[in-house]
Amino acid sequence: MAGISDERELAIHPIVMESVQHNAKTISNIRSLTASLFGVVAGTLGLESYPGFIFYLVGSLTVSLLIYLFRTQGKPSAYFHRPLAELWGGEVFGGLMSFVLTWTLFYGLVRA
Amino acid sequence: MGFTSNLFNLVGLVLLGHAVYSAHEHSSQNPLHLPSSPPSFSPLTTPTSTTSLPTDIVLETLFSVLLISTGIVLGSSSLRPIQWSKWAGQLEREERVKKSVKEIREGTGNPYRILEERPGFVDVRGKRKEFMEWVRKGDDLAAK
């Protein structure tokens, strides 16, 4: 039943795929930039193992909050089809590799 | 928005660079693992590197990263509403305000521009009259 009501909702309020792609690309850009930045910070602070990953998750949550405040003006459902998946959790693990890269790099540089 | 985000990014990068340099200097001044120190102490007494960093460097780093992320978020391109009605309404309002040179350059303007900017209907009767005059002129020339 939920699927039928979803379809009806989409038929009444159609969704612009271009905008969805544009928003996803914007989020992905922000995530990849900030992931490297968090890696720099985690390496500089000398975080190791789990605290580093927890720092990354906390930082991603902060960035999501910033996007929520400044970009969606508190109405994420107007810009994302599923706000929980696309705004709060979108692309979080896509930036993990660049985070680890800069994390290890700056850890090695700072505390060599 | 652009100026604010650039300012945030610049100040944040300067602070981050200073913090990283300070951390590097600090770690080179007080090395954690001296090569001369015997590796006999237990892992429990190993000084964790986080506590060894001075508080002001930690605070400066965290503040700078907050500043840069705010700058990045402010500098990112604005999101577009996904609901067709709101999106089209926003486009209409934007086009009314400015003739959206940027949107045209990006190729993501109003998809109904073809319909809205088409020429008016062709005056069929006027065209027919013109054509008849042209034919008559040709007949006159042939008669002469």
Automatic annotation (TrEMBL), chain A:
<dbReference type="GO" id="GO:0000045">
    <property type="term" value="P:autophagosome assembly"/>
</dbReference>
<comment type="similarity">
    <text>Belongs to the EMC6 family.</text>
</comment>
<dbReference type="InterPro" id="IPR029008">
    <property type="entry name" value="EMC6-like"/>
</dbReference>
<feature type="transmembrane region" description="Helical">
    <location>
        <begin position="53"/>
        <end position="71"/>
    </location>
</feature>
<dbReference type="GO" id="GO:0072546">
    <property type="term" value="C:EMC complex"/>
</dbReference>
<dbReference type="GO" id="GO:0034975">
    <property type="term" value="P:protein folding in endoplasmic reticulum"/>
</dbReference>
<dbReference type="Pfam" id="PF07019">
    <property type="entry name" value="EMC6"/>
</dbReference>
<keyword id="KW-0256">Endoplasmic reticulum</keyword>
<protein>
    <recommendedName>
        <fullName>ER membrane protein complex subunit 6</fullName>
    </recommendedName>
</protein>
<feature type="transmembrane region" description="Helical">
    <location>
        <begin position="92"/>
        <end position="110"/>
    </location>
</feature>
<keyword id="KW-0812">Transmembrane</keyword>
<keyword id="KW-0472">Membrane</keyword>
<keyword id="KW-1133">Transmembrane helix</keyword>
<dbReference type="InterPro" id="IPR008504">
    <property type="entry name" value="Emc6"/>
</dbReference>
From TrEMBL, chain B:
<comment type="similarity">
    <text>Belongs to the membrane magnesium transporter (TC 1.A.67) family.</text>
</comment>
<dbReference type="InterPro" id="IPR053279">
    <property type="entry name" value="EMC_subunit"/>
</dbReference>
<dbReference type="GO" id="GO:0072546">
    <property type="term" value="C:EMC complex"/>
</dbReference>
<dbReference type="GO" id="GO:0034975">
    <property type="term" value="P:protein folding in endoplasmic reticulum"/>
</dbReference>
<protein>
    <recommendedName>
        <fullName>Magnesium transporter</fullName>
    </recommendedName>
</protein>
<keyword id="KW-0732">Signal</keyword>
<keyword id="KW-0472">Membrane</keyword>
<keyword id="KW-0812">Transmembrane</keyword>
<feature type="region of interest" description="Disordered">
    <location>
        <begin position="28"/>
        <end position="48"/>
    </location>
</feature>
<feature type="transmembrane region" description="Helical">
    <location>
        <begin position="57"/>
        <end position="76"/>
    </location>
</feature>
<keyword id="KW-1133">Transmembrane helix</keyword>
<dbReference type="InterPro" id="IPR018937">
    <property type="entry name" value="MMgT"/>
</dbReference>
<dbReference type="Pfam" id="PF10270">
    <property type="entry name" value="MMgT"/>
</dbReference>
<feature type="signal peptide">
    <location>
        <begin position="1"/>
        <end position="22"/>
    </location>
</feature>
